[in-house]
Amino acid sequence: MSKNNSDKSTSLNTNKKVTFLQKHKRTIMFLAFVFWIGFAVLYSTQSNAKESYPIGEISKQQLLENHDDFASNYYDYQPSEEEYTAIAAIADKVTVDVFFGTWCHDSEREVPRLLKSLKNNQLKVSLIALDGKKSDPAGLAQQSGIKYTPTFIIYAGGVEIGRIIERPKQSLAEDIWLIWHKHSLAKS
């Protein structure tokens, strides 16, 4: 008899739970939806706070001190003699604007390589960090028509003579030298 009463009690409790869920189905679904939205907003806010990227002109020192992947790639990269020679040959003939994102894997690879190739030379390089929409506060990316990162714009005498977009054909140093060389031949 006690087993029978126990079964009836369990059955009544189950029925009460089902009835409660049926009665409050909409309220429970609404609360679950509100909780889900709140969690998504909270997670998004925390993610954005962690992923604050520098935007605008940035120095080599700031880049390497504040972005471990860039620093690691810089210190690990060993330029070839050809790269050092190419940069030395054009150091006083060209300037380079580098548009990149600290969030961009291609930038993490290529920008440190260029900076390391310049280690012993005086080639003037401007580093312009972009946001995820590939823009910066000064509007330099928009003025330069930047669509991909990184983009290396090479200037001679203040005039653009070429671009390297995302990755070089040989190395950045050698490709920059080749752009300058073609430009100087065309001027002759």
UniProtKB/TrEMBL annotation:
PROSITE patterns: THIOREDOXIN_2
Domain Thioredoxin span(s) in chain numbering: 53-186
InterPro entries: Thioredoxin-like_sf, Thioredoxin_domain
Domain of life: Bacteria
Database matches in Pfam families: Thioredoxin_9
Listed CDD domains: TRX_family
Name the record gives this protein: Thioredoxin family protein
Organism of provenance: Thalassotalea fonticola
